[in-house]
């Protein structure tokens, strides 16, 4: 990686993804909406000065501000444009040749009495070639004229953004007879002269005229679609205008998916404190490690010179202390978080936009499916949704979601709807798993709650601190955390009804069903009362956790999208465990779940339901309408899958160890992808090895999976230390954690105040 300013890459290099999507080298380009363009250019004056090609660029640029603009007016004259609502002025000045007239116009802006434009886009050459029939004398005169203009442009560049647009190639076969002298050879000569003179001038000046050369690359791919061989097709002009908008506006608007021309964000107070903490942890671990090594050398067995036998030391090496394990975990975590920061906050590694094709999504899906089937093994137990099976389920769903994210498949609605079912299935497992635990074990102790909350939230809390992101940004973790607390509250409040108590009296089952009906009523009310929902989560300090961009709407939308599926998971667990208790299902190895007749009927209904949902999702036309139906119908495909997977005894007794391995680290994979596999907070793709997309994905994926696995181990190690089983010690730790979060809220408030 050469380093340097990403603006240079945006203005000079890139490639097409597909036919119309332009990918700058090393950075991501934001697609500006009209409202964003107006906010960026408010009270600005922009001037385009040059020939008919610059006029085309002018029209494409003002259409980003107002799409209703028509290309009317005198083609060989000045054209003004004004947006009064945002006080934006954009002018096109007709100067088809680089000559004394253009020089005089530019000179007026350098004089103190005249207001300077904020942005100047200039360029011309084809008229000089045409009028002078491509003569060498015209080229010499062009060099003289641009040499006289260059110092004026440099002077303007001290206070304005000045761009010189190089000439695009032509499609010589389509040129009219009056333009046949405009050849690509001549255009290259004029471009070479302009670049050499402007670069020479900039070396003698602190300011710099930016050479807009990327238009040449775009034209090389698209000029054959030109109507006359000279002017670019509309899509190419629009791409050039969008590049100009990114060059100027990204540093002002700071869009997440526009990494080009964005400076590295400054370290916040909390980030600096986190850096100090991890540095001290690394130093502390190294010191303890050196002390232990030194002690080991002192206690090392030595050889008795007389007998030739080893003498063992009197004391054995002590076990690893809690402090050493703690420092070791934070040491590893500190190094991993440094990698996170370098990947997605420092301008060190490249980032690229996503581009969806059917092959980029479906080929990897087939590949992992083959791998998963290849690693088939026998399960240790043959119960419905046993641990190995649920790990397998989480694993293949997580891999599909990862492929969905990196391929940009959210733009393809049928795929989006099926992925929504996978997210719902995760939440279904949350309801099923936690309900089963509390129902069977009856353990409502603080230790269990703290263990679950720590394992779910540890990584996200660290990332919120290191990556300077709100908690709600990692939306899935807040979602499963809140649902866990809802499940806990539902079952823990009086009367506590568990399996042991209910087995003595069937009325307790009725009591539990009443609890579940109350929960369903609350869910229904909150889903249709946005105001009540927002009031609950707008109270401080809850608002600090659930606000995104200053409001909790995003949190309400995410919660509402899968509002019933956790309840469905709890209900399924209750029914299944009741049937299991009464021995109404057969879970022996190789045995169908029910009698052959019932099993066949249920299997047929499940397959039909599964396919029916897939057909409906594939025929979906409107995302909003489909999202409205999704909470009510997603459970059909989830239940259909569970029955298909568990009714046949042979299928139930097998699982894929490949998928199960990924399932054990599925939460870490889901969170880590935000910053070290994808980029720009999931909007783009991390590029460690530019120029080799497939090799880059292999390398970044390997690192990403290793890091996720390591973080999973660190979380498990720290959970044993931070959340001990002893209640008195746990209470002290909880007080320390409360103090930590109080300090975090205080520093966050100071940070927000300094930003404003």
UniProtKB/TrEMBL annotation:
Record's GO cellular component terms: Golgi membrane
Catalysed reaction, written as an equation: CMP-N-acetyl-beta-neuraminate + acetyl-CoA = CMP-N-acetyl-7-O-acetyl-beta-neuraminate + CoA; CMP-N-acetyl-beta-neuraminate + acetyl-CoA = CMP-N-acetyl-9-O-acetyl-beta-neuraminate + CoA; a ganglioside GD3 (d18:1(4E)) + acetyl-CoA = a ganglioside Ac-O-7-GD3(d18:1(4E)) + CoA
EC id: 2.3.1.45
Main localization of the protein described in the UniProt heading: Golgi
Membrane-crossing segments per the record: 269-291, 325-343, 355-375, 396-417, 452-468, 474-494, 506-526, 561-579, 600-617, 659-679, 685-709, 730-750
UniProt-recorded Gene Ontology molecular function terms: N-acetylneuraminate 9-O-acetyltransferase activity
Superkingdom, natural source: Eukaryota
Primary enzyme class: transferase
Membrane topology annotation: Multi-pass membrane protein
Subcellular localization, as worded in the UniProt entry: Golgi apparatus membrane
Any GO BP annotation: carbohydrate metabolic process
Presence of keyword Methyltransferase: no
Keywords linked to the UniProt accession: Acyltransferase, Glycoprotein, Golgi apparatus, Membrane, Transferase, Transmembrane, Transmembrane helix
Domain NXPE C-terminal intervals: 22-90
Residues of the Cas1p 10 TM acyl transferase domain: 253-734
Family designation: Belongs to the PC-esterase family. CASD1 subfamily.
PANTHER family named among the record's database cross-references: N-ACETYLNEURAMINATE 9-O-ACETYLTRANSFERASE
Protein name: N-acetylneuraminate (7)9-O-acetyltransferase
Species annotation: Nyctibius bracteatus
């Amino acid at each position: 990686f050469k380093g340097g300013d990403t603006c240079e890459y945006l203005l000079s290099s890139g490639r097409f993804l597909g036919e119309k999507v332009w990918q700058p080298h090393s950075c991501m380009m934001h697609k500006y909406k009209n409202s964003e363009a107006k906010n960026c250019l408010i009270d600005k004056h922009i001037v385009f000065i040059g020939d008919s090609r610059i006029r085309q660029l002018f029209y494409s640029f003002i259409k980003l501000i107002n799409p209703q603009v028509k290309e009317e007016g005198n083609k060989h004259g000045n054209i003004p444009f004004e947006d009064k609502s945002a006080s934006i002025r954009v002018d096109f000045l007709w100067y088809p040749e680089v000559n004394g007239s253009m020089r005089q116009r530019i000179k007026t802006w350098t004089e103190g009495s005249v207001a300077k434009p904020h942005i100047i886009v200039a360029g011309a050459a084809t008229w000089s070639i045409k009028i002078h029939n491509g003569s060498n004398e015209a080229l010499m005169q062009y060099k003289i004229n641009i040499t006289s203009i260059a110092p004026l442009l440099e002077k303007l560049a001290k206070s304005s953004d000045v761009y010189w647009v190089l000439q695009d190639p032509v499609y010589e076969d389509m040129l009219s007879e009056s333009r046949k002298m405009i050849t690509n050879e001549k255009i290259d000569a004029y471009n070479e002269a302009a670049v050499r003179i402007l670069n020479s001038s900039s070396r003698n000046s602190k300011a710099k005229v930016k050479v807009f050369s990327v238009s040449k690359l775009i034209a090389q791919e698209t000029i054959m679609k030109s109507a006359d061989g000279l002017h670019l097709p509309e899509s190419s002009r629009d791409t050039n205008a969008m590049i100009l908008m990114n060059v100027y506006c990204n540093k002002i608007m700071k869009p997440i998916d526009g990494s080009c021309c964005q400076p590295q964000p400054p370290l916040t107070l909390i980030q600096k404190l986190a850096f100090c903490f991890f540095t001290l942890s690394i130093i502390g671990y190294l010191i303890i490690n050196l002390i232990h090594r030194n002690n080991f050398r002192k206690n090392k067995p030595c050889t008795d010179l007389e007998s030739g036998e080893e003498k063992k030391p009197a004391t054995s090496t002590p076990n690893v202390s809690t402090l050493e394990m703690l420092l070791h975990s934070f040491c590893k975590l500190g190094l991993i978080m440094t990698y996170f920061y370098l990947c997605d906050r420092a301008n060190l590694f490249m980032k690229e936009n996503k581009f969806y094709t059917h092959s980029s999504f479906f080929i990897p899906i087939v590949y992992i499916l083959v791998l998963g089937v290849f690693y088939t093994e026998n399960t240790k137990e043959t119960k419905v949704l046993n641990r190995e099976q649920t790990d397998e389920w989480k694993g293949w769903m997580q891999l599909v979601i990862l492929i969905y994210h990196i391929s940009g498949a959210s733009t393809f609605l049928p795929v989006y709807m099926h992925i929504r079912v996978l997210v719902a299935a995760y939440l279904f497992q949350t309801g099923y798993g936690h309900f089963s635990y509390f129902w069977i074990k009856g353990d409502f102790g603080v230790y269990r709650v703290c263990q679950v909350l720590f394992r779910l939230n540890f990584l996200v809390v660290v990332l919120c601190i290191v990556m300077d992101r709100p908690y709600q940004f990692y939306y899935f973790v807040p979602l499963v955390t809140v649902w866990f607390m809802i499940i806990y509250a539902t079952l823990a409040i009086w009367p506590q009804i568990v399996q042991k108590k209910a087995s003595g009296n069937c009325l307790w089952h009725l009591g539990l069903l009443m609890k579940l009906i109350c929960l369903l009523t609350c869910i229904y009310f909150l889903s249709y009362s946005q105001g009540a929902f927002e009031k609950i989560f707008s109270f401080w300090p809850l608002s600090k956790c659930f606000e995104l961009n200053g409001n909790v709407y995003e949190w309400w939308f995410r919660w509402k999208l899968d509002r019933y599926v956790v309840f469905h998971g709890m209900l399924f667990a209750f029914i299944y465990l009741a049937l299991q208790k009464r021995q109404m299902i057969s879970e022996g190895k190789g045995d169908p779940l029910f009698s052959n007749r019932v099993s066949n009927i249920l299997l047929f209904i499940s397959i039909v339901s599964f396919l029916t949902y897939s057909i409906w999702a594939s025929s979906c036309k409107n995302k909003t309408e489909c999202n409205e139906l999704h909470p009510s119908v997603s459970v059909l495909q989830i239940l259909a899958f569970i029955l298909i997977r568990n009714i046949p005894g042979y299928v139930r007794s097998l699982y894929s160890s490949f998928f199960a391995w990924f399932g054990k680290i599925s939460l870490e994979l889901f969170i880590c992808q935000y910053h070290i596999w994808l980029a720009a907070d999931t909007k783009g793709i991390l590029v460690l090895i530019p120029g080799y997309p497939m090799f880059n994905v292999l390398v970044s994926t390997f690192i990403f999976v290793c890091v996720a696995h390591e973080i999973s181990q660190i979380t498990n190690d720290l959970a044993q230390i931070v959340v001990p089983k002893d209640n008195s010690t746990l209470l002290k730790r909880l007080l320390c954690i409360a103090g930590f979060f109080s300090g975090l809220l205080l520093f966050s408030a100071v940070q927000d105040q300094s930003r404003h």
